[in-house]
Amino acid sequence: MDNKEDVTRIGVFLCQCGGNISDKVDIEKIETILMEDEKIQVVTHYENLCSIEGGKIIKEKIITENLDRVVIAACSSVTHGDTFKQYVKPLNPYLFEMPNIREQCSWVENDPDKATNKALSLIRSGVESVQYSEPLDSILGKVRHSALVVGAGISGITTALSLAKQGIKTTLVEEKPTIGGSMVQVGKVFSPAKLTEDCAMCLLNPLVNEAVENKNITILTNTVVESSKKRSGNFNVILKKHAVYVDEDKCTSCGRCSEVCPISAPDMWNEGLIQRKAIYKPFPQAVPNTYTIDEEHCIKCGKCEETCQTNAINLNAYRDMISLNVGSIVIATGHKRFDTKKRPEYGHEKYEDVITQMELARIMGVNGPTYGKLLTPSTGKIPKRIVMVQCVGSRDDKPYGHKYCSKICCMVAIKSANLIKQHYPNTEVIICYTDIRTPGMYEKYYKYGQTQGIKLIRGRPGEITKKDGHLIVRVEDTLTSERKEIETNMVVLSAAIEPSSGTVRLAKTLGVSLTEDKFIKEKHPKIKPVTTDIQGIFVCGTAQGPKDITESVIQANAVSSKIAERLNGGLEVEPFIANTNQKKCSMCLICVEQCKYNAINKEHNTIYVDPLSCTGCGACMISCPEQAISIRGQSDEKLEAKIEGILKDKKPDEKIIIAFLDDIGNISADNIGVNRISCPSSIRIIHVPYINRVKYQHVKHALTHGADGIFLGEYPDTPTHNQIRENFKNMKKQLKEDNINPDRLIIHRTFIPYFRGLSKQFEQFDEQIKQEIK
After folding, report:
1. How far is CA 645 from the centre of its chain?
2. Strand partners, 484
3. What's the rounded Cα separation, in Å, for the pair 406 and 440?
4. 65-79, 127-141, 190-204: lowest mean pLDDT where?
5. Main-chain dihedrals φ then ψ at residue 245, nearest 5 degrees
6. Which end of the chain is less congested by CB atoms within 10 angstroms, N or C?
7. Taking residues 383-389, what's their average pLDDT?
8. Residue pLDDT, tens place only, 345-370
9. SS3 668
10. How far apart are CA 522 and CA 516, in angstroms?
11. Can you give the pLDDT at residue 7?
12. pLDDT 10s digits, 264-296
């Protein structure tokens, strides 16, 4: 440990957190023990260190005691880390450590003695490691006053408009031929405050028209993101625009081309309920207001080209590649719906009169296949009874199903049922539900639906069959334990919301992390709900998870606000970036190949790290054969000091498992405490930005200095996942070669929502280590 600063004056501040910590942790006992350490000059406690008064106490002690380093033992750094960075001034803000003795100690440990012992070891870890902290400065930069919004649904359009009104040049990209997203299909949207259903297009059209007319917005349809590279805080993006066979400036939408087209294809805007031609206008109010050609079905016979009087059609058109340099990117790629054919017991593919909620919306839409008339597909008659089945693919443990609730399905079903009862009062509507979920004002709309005569059965149907020309829905009412066979004319399935294929593809292109369910992962669900783990890339709408139109619009405006902050206030990023030792570097360029963020490049026969693109993930450091790369502020010596602090004065009969958790795992561990779920007293968490930061030397150091086990908690949906798993395998091999039981090292996946699973993994590993010690 030859990097150790000549530090002699460390101050330790203990937060009682209004009893949240001090009710379990003996603060006075810890103070007494810590004062025996000659490196520590000050140990003091206060009820709430995060308060203004707490800040004054910290600043005063730093000045009057001439402190070199500070350790603040309090809550999670996610909650108040930035607050304490301000409080430790005039010291450099990176010369302090913040052991978490609340979420990861007092809130997960019921035994006061064990809680105190764990808190002491975590604080000692901070004391030992802070001696290797070095003064650093945040990296500042300027970014381009422009943005790319990918996805032109309601959230994408709202974001683009808000940015454009702030003078930010915005490119709005849409994969489909028209903009508007799912909202153009639904026909009606519910208004819980007014207990009415409003026209979706009437609400959306003014926004669409405003976006088209805004000079700061460029709209590109039939376009996808081909590639993106981040450099100096900006993004060099290549867009691929598919061949445009119909010139929108020349097309008058006369429709003659469609009349002569010999090819028919399913009209997907109407959910395939009717046919349209291979050259078609997606829907009457489409923007751009032009016809488009379906490449999959067009045979290029040339009849449309011959018929067009304005020469708007060119069947020899080719795709175009467009390059952009923007300061921010917004992912607003929307969602898709669960494929109900994956639930054959509901007969969607087998029975014509089993439809989805979106198919029902198109049937009841005035511009739909039946011009707004509710007609049974097989008979063309008004149905006497309709049964709606909720949670098809949601809250579902079966293959292809999703454990999460899709959030809007209950409200969509109630909206559809209300519409039916208003226009067809003699049609009986029954909703088979798992649980009705109508939060806030929506509860009022739900109650209103019940007064309209909508019937509810609590139970998920097991099967839908057909008998004597009628559909039969078999369901058990779980409130009465009564099994029923409901004869009906139509069945409507409420399908789950899933991440769109475009969302998953774009995440891979941009290097953005996904949740376990493949939605875009936010940096923090409460504090940073629209920020991704790549600085400068934001998310809004259903690309981030199931939500309604209102929430999508709110999120879109939040994204616009964050981008404006970024562009107008300048860029500031953490200084924990890769640093190369040019004397050791052999210019093998392995680091350039390994970097998933394009942050490392060869320039003038040296390795250059772009400080605004580097995430400090450690992939380059792990792969460097010359060990010429380090991460600023995160030296090997500092991590080893953390380990030694935890293991200091370990009792002979004490069991300690060191859990290295990445950012996601650390938040998940915080959630264990927030939800007051118990955690083995043996667990000691060391937060590392990425699991790649943990080398074999650290694992071996811990196991040979008293640790009984090492737990690696890794969020898997990152570009470095495969490398991390390969490194883990190599570590196990090296442990075996060094005659250390490789079973003492394990790795598990971590996700923010599944904190209970992380707690169980801790318990299982704790039990495993206990058995091995016996």
Report:
1. 34
2. 475
3. 17
4. 190-204
5. -85, -15
6. C
7. 98
8. 999 989 999 999 999 999 999 989 99
9. helix
10. 12
11. 56
12. 999 999 999 999 999 999 999 999 999 999 999
Mean pLDDT of 68-73: 96
Q: Are the beta carbons of 510 and 537 closer than 8 angstroms?
A: yes
The answer to whether 333 and 506 are in contact (CB under 8 A) is yes
Cα dihedral value 620, 621, 624, 626, nearest 10: 150
pLDDT confidence of residue 605: 85
**CA atoms of 115 and 110, how far apart (whole Å):** 7
* Residue 618 CB-density burial (10 A; 0-12 exposed, 13-18 middle, 19+ buried): buried
- Whether residue 552 contacts residue 560, with contact meaning beta carbons closer than 8 Å, is answered with no
pLDDT at 1: 37
Q: pTM value?
A: 0.79
Question: Model confidence at 2, in pLDDT bands (50, 70, 90)?
Answer: very low
- Tracing tokens 């149905």 back to the chain, one arrives at 383
* All residues at 6 or more sequence positions from 53 whose CB lies less than 8 Å from its CB, including other chains: 46
* Res 738: pLDDT: 96
- Quick one: DSSP state of residue 384? S
E-assigned strands of 478-570?
482-488, 490-495, 497-499, 537-539
Cα 67 to Cα 41: distance, rounded to the nearest angstrom = 8
Dmax over CA atoms of the chain, in Å, equals 93
Q: Which two tokens stand for residue 402?
A: 């999703």
The average pLDDT across 86-98 equals 94
Confidence of residue 618 (pLDDT cuts 50, 70, 90): confident
C-alpha distance across the termini of the chain, in Å: 34
Tell me which amino acid residue 32 is.
Answer: T
Which 8-state DSSP code applies to residue 162? H
Chain-centre distance for alpha carbon 52: 33
Mean pLDDT of 633-652: 93
Q: Please give the C-alpha separations between residue 467 and each of 348, 377, 385, 736, in angstroms, as whole numbers.
A: 16, 17, 15, 66
Contacts of 96 (CB under 8 A, 6+ apart): 69, 70, 71, 72, 84, 85, 88, 130, 133
Q: Which residues pair with 477 in a beta bridge?
A: 482
